[in-house]
Structure formats: C-alpha cells, structure tokens
Amino acid sequence: MTTGSLVVRGGEALSGTIPISGAKNAALPILIAALLAEKSTLENIPDIYDVTRLLDILKAAGSKVDRTASEVRVSRSEKRGPIPIEALKEIRYSPLLIPVLAKQIGFGELPFPGGCELGQRPIHYHFEVLSRFGIVFTMKKNSYAFSADRLVGTSFRFPFPSVGATENALLAASVSTGTSVLENCAIEPEIQDLEHFLTKLGVSIEGIGQRRKLITPPDELKSGVCHRVISDRIEAITYMLLGIICESSIAISQISHEHLRSIYRVFDRLGITYQLGKDSFQFLSAKGNRSMTLKTGVHPGFPTDAQPLFSALFCHLSGGEHTIHESVFPSRVAHVEELQKMGANIANQKNIISVFRASKSRSSRVTARDIRAGASVVLHALGISGSTTVDNPHQIYRGYENMLGKLLSVGAKIEVCA
User: Pick the residue with more confidence: 59 or 241?
Assistant: First the structure.
C-alpha cells in the first residue's frame, strides 16, 4: 500500500471511466458472517486496509483465509490463536464478532471499537439487543467481556435504526434457537446484502429491506456458498462529484442505480444533468445551479458518508448558500477546517455546515482526518488551481480501493512524497 503524503495539482481536465469496487460497508460484516459457516467464497471484496486488518482477525479467530484479487475464501479451521488487539481497535466492526464467538466458544473479550473519529457511536444498542439473545456483558475500562450458555431467539425494537446493531442482531438471530422478530431496523443496501448472504446460508428472513424482520435459523447453516458483494455507493458518489467539480467528462461504471436514487434526486434539484446507462453514470453539465439545503439521515435519506463529499462539491457551485445539517454523526465536521485551509468559504455552526462558492483558492497543506474527510479534501484539491499536500492519506486507503490509481487513470496529477 502506498505510503507518504499526496501532492495534488488541481485544475486539470479529466476524462475516462472509473469502475467502482465492492462496498466496504457490506464486505466487512459479510466477512464476519462467513465465520459462521464451514466455508464460503466471497467475490468483489475491495482491497482496502480495513479489509486486510479484518482478515488478520478472522485468521486469528480460527479461519483459513485464501485471497486472490477480489475473491476471498473463508473456511473454518481448528487452529485458534489470540485475536490481535491492535487490529480490533482500528476497525469499528469488531462488535460483530460477539455473536460469532458467543456461539462458537461461549465467551470473549473485545476492546471498544475504533474506526473514524465521528463522535459517540451508539454501541449500547449492540449490548441491549444482544442481551436479549442471552449474552451477558461485563464492562471494563477499555474493553468488555461477554459470555453465553446458548443463544435464544427474541423480539426487540431498536430505539434508533442503528446499522451496526441491526447487523449484530441479524447475526445473532441466524445462530439462535427459535424465531426472532426485529423492529425499527436499519435498511441500508449494505444490510440488505448481508441479509442476502445469510439467506444463502439457509437463514429464513422475512422483511429484507424492511424495518420489521422475522428471522428463523436453519438446523445447520449451509456450507460452500458463493456471494458477490454489492458495489460501493459511497465510492460511486465520490467519483460522480469528481466529474462535476472538475467539469470533466468522467463516467462511473459497475454501479447500482437503486442504491443511488437519493443522490440523483439531489442532482436533479441542483440542476445537474447526467446520463445513466445500465450500470453507469456520465456527468453532462452543472449549469443553472440552485441553492440547496440537505439533512443527513438513515436510509433511504441522504447518507451521512456523503456529507463531507457534498461539502467539497458545494465549494464549486454557484447559486448562493448551500447548507447541510449533519444529524447522524454530530462530530463529522473535521473536513470543514481542512477545506478552510484551502480557501474554501465554508463554516460549521452546531452541526450545520454552510458553504458558498469560494472566490479564491490557495496552495496549502491539509490532513485526511478520516476516510470521507480525506476524500473531501482530495476532491476539492483536484478542482482548484495550484498544489495541495494531503498528509495522512492512510485514512483514505482504509475505505477506497486504489484511489490513487483510479484518479491517475483519468488524468489527475498526483504524486506521492515521503
């Protein structure tokens, strides 16, 4: 993986087609779910840092992992070693190991999850729902221990449609005794992909893509299933906005239009024109821009992961003031300060981000503070004149497969420096 800071020279005309990789937020929970079966083959797995770290965890948790290009084969092994604590601290999906370990060995201890620093994540929802399945938790200073004699199906209504807690409940319900009823679930496309994988394992799920679900596990999970992970809608959004920001003819391929409807509605309201193919998107023009007010929310609303990306876009659009209310992760504003360093006319006040088209831009040194904040500053840097140095690009590599290579393929001028 490339190390060193990125030096981005903006203001260049870009052209070409960027293929979209597998979805990070689908691949990670599905890889963990694969631990439940004797063996599985997963396709379209993105080659990103978070996946690599998770595969290290799976190996330690007792799985044999074979990886070739975008395909990963996971099979159960009798050999189990200590799970690397540092790897667990780096990714936010570690709580999904709870029902797996509770089912297989009856106990475990995990550090509190890491990932991007976006403020408080509602991990207590995980504890609440998993406790209903019979898992007992003990809180410690920097970790939590858990144990279970057996997992029993239950009924639970989520106070908030948490993505991670919904995924955890789906895993627990898939290996419990009896039927479970889950209400007010998250319904993101990545969760639906996990549900489709679980059904291939033999789990009966009524209500895929719906807030209420009825889950009945089989007597024994199927082995040898093959599943292709969906494309990454946030990566697709990133490169769609690249074409708009750089006013360039960039096509995006291997996407699902169904997962991007909320984004197309925003483009329509902004006056952005585009052309859709079977699984492709082509930017046409961004004339007649209108001011826009957005609010992040759970699916099918405007995705919080897209908020930093649209913050960069709005720095390049006319039409007056654009605002985005961040209602999911109040601390997801790290990109604002970095964009300001580049001359962007952007401000944050009480989680409401206000953006005007900047009249001036300047060369600067910025930091990729998290995955999407890093993508945000790269997008903005490519759309302004001069050079921008982006430190800590490791954060970007955690969530984007070969971003540097894909940008270079369409003519971006980016160098890596020590």
Answer: 241
User: CA-to-CA distance for 416 and 341, rounded, in angstroms?
Assistant: 20
226 in active site: no
Confidence of residue 77 (pLDDT cuts 50, 70, 90): confident
Q: What is the pTM of this model?
A: 0.95
Question: What is the chain's percent helix, strand, coil content, to nearest 5?
Answer: 35, 25, 40
Task: Please report, for the chain, the start and end positions of each structural domain, with discontinuous segments joined by +.
Answer: 5-21+231-417, 24-228
262-293 pLDDT tens trace: 999 999 999 999 999 999 999 999 876 788 99
The answer to whether the beta carbons of residues 20 and 235 sit under 8 Å apart is: yes
Tokens of 37: 């079966």
φ/ψ of residue 283, rounded to 5: -70, 135
Considering the domain 5-21+231-417 in this protein, what is its CATH number? 3.65.10.10
Contact indicator for 221, 37 with CB cutoff of 8 Å:
yes
Same topology, domains 5-21+231-417 and 24-228? Answer is yes
Q: Measured between alpha carbons, how far is residue 240 from residues 4, 25, 252 in Å?
A: 26, 19, 7
Per-residue pLDDT tens over the stretch 132-177: 999 999 999 889 999 999 999 999 999 999 999 999 999 999 999 9
**Tokens standing for 355?**
């953006």
DSSP reduced 3-state for 162: coil
Domain 24-228: CATH superfamily, name plus number: Enolpyruvate transferase domain (3.65.10.10)
**Alpha carbon distance 109, 147 (integer Å):** 9
Rg value, the chain, Cα = 22
